[in-house]
Amino acid sequence: MDPPPVPPPHVIIFPLAAQGHVNSMLKLAELLAISGLRITFINSEHIHHRLLRHAHIQAHFAAFPDFRFKIISDGFPIDHPRSPDHFMTTFNYVKSITKQLFEELVSAPDRPVTCIIADGILTFTIDFAGDLGVPVIAFRTISASSFWACFCIPRMIESGDLPLKGDEDMDRDVTSVPGMEDILRCRDLPSFCRVADLSDQLLQYVTTQTLQTTAARALILNTFDQLEGPAISQIRTQFPNLYTIGPLHSHLRSRLSSSSPSPSSASNSLWKVDRSCIAWLDKQPPKSVIYVSFGSITTLNRHDFTEFWYGLVNSGRRFLWVVRPDSLAEGSSGAVPEELKEAAAERGCIVGWAPQEEVLHHGAVAAFLTHSGWNSTLESVVAGKPMVCWPFFADQQVNSRLVSHAWKVGLDMKDVCDREVVERMVNEVMGERQEEFAAAAGDLARRARNAASEGGSSWDNLDRLIEDIRSMKPTS
């Protein structure tokens, strides 16, 4: 009599409840599901509700019979306006309920747990899972360079690079981040490093979480070796078991195209996508449009919003601009000047949310004015589109410096919001320097696609990750 078949490994995936984190970790979850692993994805009630409404996520993952969602509260009502200001409150609530949640999942007799892939900003999961005998793999959803800068915060403090001494300090070179000595200035450090007081709560939290990542069994990064080689080399000195498997959205597309039959990739959007912008783009000349989006969290005050609008209009270029319903900061007021509305009607298209990957690959789009979130940066890299960067917070300051100084595929506008600067930079990437930036961006795009294709570094690293998971013993 043949022995019963051995069930596939069961992986719990636990992201921070924010769109950028959930988006990339859902793509990782789908990559693992394609490879035959069982997946339980822990989602906040708020995030899951929006994914059901706008991304039809349940129907998409129904194609994988061993995939399921586990829904938890993040401590707020579903309709609560979640802002970065509420991060620590959410974190403390989720931490308080996670140990019991893990105990329930691990003790379930029908699905023994093989490992947990946890967001690297939630390292309390390492202790909780360790008490249950379950290995944890950390996944940081930021760039390798940003992660390494965070890891080096104690070194920056020891050397005197931190704390910052004021605005006059911002253009000083930072020399205490190995491998990035010729890249970073003070203004290019993650936003929570911009403090005069080293006891700042967010600085302390990020530093602690990043250093505690070393207790995980392994580290996953959504990047590829040829994109961030110096930072990746340094990270490997601290994390020998490192998996660089990005760009995840490109990697997922490659795996889906090589499997038959296969579902299409989900959008994972928390906002209602307005596809009318694609029809608008179809009517525009090739390489004539700048796409503008500041992501899912960035808010603009009325001054900044108006300066961007004047800068875009004065550039004389066609533009597609994503303006979320909550894009303006609370308390911002004032009517939009009629001249701006008229100019937008002539050569602009404004939508609440756009299918970004599709937009960036559209032939009419020449460049991307972006907040430099890591997902958006990678999507622009894969599409081969130059960038104008206006980072908002967290890792985005580092990413924008990579774009302009390390990869030379765009311009960095951080800490400036002036219509004349917007106009000048848009015209540089769309006009006088378009060929220069387009050539560099095209070369980077080829490297990204090669890394995420069969035989590429990211493809091989994912295979290695899956084999590592398969070698683990599940809980019993």
TrEMBL record:
GO MF annotation terms: 7-deoxyloganetic acid glucosyltransferase activity; UDP-glucosyltransferase activity
Catalytic EC class: transferase
Enzyme Commission number, as recorded: 2.4.1.-
Residue stretches in coiled coil: none
TM regions (residue ranges): none
Family: Belongs to the UDP-glycosyltransferase family.
Name of this protein: Glycosyltransferase
